[in-house]
Specification:
Blueprint: H1 3-18, E1 28-33, E2 36-43, H2 46-57, E3 64-67, E4 70-71, H3 79-92, E5 101-105, E6 108-115, H4 118-129, E7 136-143, H5 170-193, H6 197-223, H7 235-247, H8 250-268, H9 277-293, H10 299-312, H11 314-340, H12 345-391, H13 393-406, H14 411-421, H15 425-435, H16 448-463, H17 468-472, H18 475-501, H19 505-534
Parallel strand pairs: 2-3, 2-4, 6-7
Antiparallel strand pairs: 1-2, 5-6
Helix pairs in contact: 1-2, 5-6, 5-7, 8-9, 11-12, 11-16, 11-18, 11-19, 12-13, 12-15, 12-16, 13-14, 18-19
Length: about 525
């Protein structure tokens, strides 16, 4: 093996390490001998150790990796704390069998149990690997496939079953360039909004990778003498950036993760992609899902991300869109039904304003009562739990220990964790509220007044769209204008939903228009029949 070849592999591995998001490659030494790379030095987490190994293996020509990296966590943690967090993470992951149990000693996690699939084992390891303080993970899960209900016919292996790949057309390459440039711009926006330096660095590295992908496709077009159009941000990227600026990065991270996964599948079918391009996109999706789903994030950062994610995530955007949709469709149906009865213009306006106020008020009152009632119930339950901690702490220790045992922790370790938590009344109450009652004491359902005002405004915003033409035009002209304005509003709402779903804006928008106009047509017919009967 020539020295030049080893040096080339060494440089390629270092390049991959440098561009791996979230990995500090300055503390990693690389040596190559006979196409086997040895990684030495230290990293901050076991997840970083796995990422470094994956980066080295992704280099063409590397036959194996000796991973001698030493994990030196930035913060030392007790084995009991690591075990508690690992159990919670495993139980929250639907892809990990409930039979899987763990034990921790000196930061080394040992996973045991049974699974039906290798993928379930890998999922268990990946879930635990990102927990702060973990130095290594030993996978002792035994794979026991479930017995099939009937024998399966043998699969013929006469042909390669890998997905076929095709060369990328210039038109498709232009689509790739637009998507990669949009993603880079969006990651730059998230980095500028992120107050945590570590997360901001991750977003900037993701942006660099997307720009490198775009450069690959730009070079392909230039080699084929195809003009590369100037970059203009797509509407979907503009909406996501706008949402992130107002609601925080966590409101859009899960949406972007889904898009990255789709990009990975799309690139897997192209024969002229850059080496590792589809793996990059899958890695981006995994990283973003970890940020959105709190996997592999250290304690203080996890708490901050988790709070933002719950309060401003995709559900908030969904509720805003559907609140405006309720107001638009209900008031459109109301004013169209009244117009169908051939009533005067002022009667239609009065009915529309009444419908707007009644609907918005009802929505606001219902939301206020719902949140307030939930908050009062939570406060009562927490008060009862607090009294029980003061009056009978031993019983609460037993309850908490049983909860951890049910999650797979050994009895002695569960008792030790529960006893340690009970030494701090505030920590004990917080833990029991979350584990036993399923309540976050810091939120308690949110602000009732904020929920009521938001519901009122969103409903009213949608309800005013079909009403305003009747304030300006004659009844006959206003009916058509109201339908036209409502159709535009419905299309906009349907298109806005695609920011979350990733589907075609035209399909979702037109579907929303068809449903809304159909409802209006039905009420117009009913109103007309009632008007004829009364006259």
């Amino acid at each position: 093996m020539t020295t030049a070849h080893c040096v080339a592999l060494d440089e390629a591995i270092r390049f991959e390490l440098d561009r791996t998001p979230g990995l500090d490659s300055s503390q990693i030494a690389v040596t190559v001998h006979e196409d086997v790379a040895t990684l030495a030095g230290s990293v901050h987490s076991y997840l970083d150790k796995l990422a470094a190994e994956h980066a080295a293996l992704s280099v063409s020509g590397v036959r194996g990796v000796a991973n001698d990296l030493d994990v030196k966590p930035a913060v030392e943690r007790l084995d009991a704390d690591i075990a508690r967090e690992a159990i919670d993470a495993l139980r929250k992951n639907p892809n990990v069998p409930t039979s899987v149990q763990i034990s921790v000693r000196d930061g080394c996690v040992e996973i045991e149990g049974t699974a039906e699939w290798d993928a379930e084992c890998a999922c268990a390891v990946a879930t635990v690997a990102g927990i702060a303080g973990v130095r290594s993970v030993a996978n002792g899960v035994v794979v026991k496939p479930a017995a099939a209900s009937c024998p399966l016919p043998p699969v013929a292996r006469t042909q390669d079953v890998r997905p076929s790949t095709v060369a990328t057309s210039p038109k498709q390459a232009q689509v790739f360039i637009q998507d990669e440039r949009d993603s880079a711009s969006l990651y730059d926006t998230l980095a500028s909004l992120e107050s945590d330096a570590r997360l901001a660095t991750v977003y900037r590295k993701l942006a660099e990778t997307e720009r490198r992908h775009a450069d690959h496709w730009i070079k392909k077009l230039q080699d084929e003498h195809v003009t590369v159009p100037p970059h203009r941000l797509g509407w979907r990227t503009r909406v996501l950036a706008w949402t992130a600026r107002r609601l925080g990065a966590a409101a859009v991270v899960s949406v972007i993760a889904g898009q990255e996964q789709a990009d990975a599948r799309r690139y897997a079918g192209t024969s002229d992609r850059a080496p590792g391009m589809d793996a990059d996109e899958r890695g981006h999706a995994t990283l973003l899902q970890a940020i959105a789903g709190n996997a592999g994030i250290e304690g203080p950062m996890l708490a901050r991300i988790e709070g933002r994610h719950r309060s401003t995530g995709g559900n908030a955007l969904r509720a805003a869109v559907l609140g405006a949709n309720d107001g638009l469709v209900s008031n459109l149906s109301l004013v169209t039904g009244v117009a169908g009865a051939s009533l005067a213009g002022k009667d239609i306006v009065i009915a529309g304003i009444a419908g707007l106020l009644a609907g918005a008020g009802s929505m606001a009152l219902g939301e206020w009562l719902s949140v307030l009632s939930s908050r009062e119930l939570y406060e009562k339950q927490i008060g009862i739990e607090q009294a029980e901690i003061a009056s009978n702490p031993e019983e609460e220790i037993e309850e908490l220990a049983l909860i951890y045992q049910a999650k797979g922790l050994p009895a002695e370790q569960a008792k030790a964790i529960a006893s340690g938590l009970m030494k701090d009344d505030r920590a004990a109450l917080d833990t029991l509220a979350r584990e036993e009652l399923g309540i976050d004491p810091k939120e308690l359902g949110g602000s009732a007044m904020q929920a009521a005002v938001t519901s009122f405004l969103l409903f009213a915003l949608g309800a005013i769209i079909p009403l305003w033409p009747y304030l300006v035009f004659s009844p006959h002209t206003a009916t058509g204008a109201s339908l036209g304005a409502s159709a535009l509003g419905l299309f906009g709402i349907g298109a806005a939903i695609t920011v979350l779903t990733g589907r075609s804006a035209w399909f979702s928008g037109l579907r929303q228009v068809a449903v809304g106009i159909g409802a209006a047509g039905l009420t117009y017919l009913i109103g007309h029949l009632i008007g004829v009967a009364l006259t």
